[in-house]
Amino acid sequence: MKFGGFVPCTLIDYPGKTACIVYTIGCNFRCPYCHNPELVNETVERTFSESRIFTFLESRRGVIDGVVITGGEPTMHGQDLLLFMRRVKERGFLVKLDTNGTNPNLLEVAISQNLVDYVAMDVKAPLSTYHRVVGRPVDIGAIRRSIDTLLSSGVPYEFRTTVVKTLLSPEDLEGIAREIAGASRYYLQKFVSSTILNPQFKRKVEYTDVELEAFRSNAEKYVAFCGIR
Question: Where is the Radical SAM core domain (predicted)?
Answer without folding.
Answer: 13-229
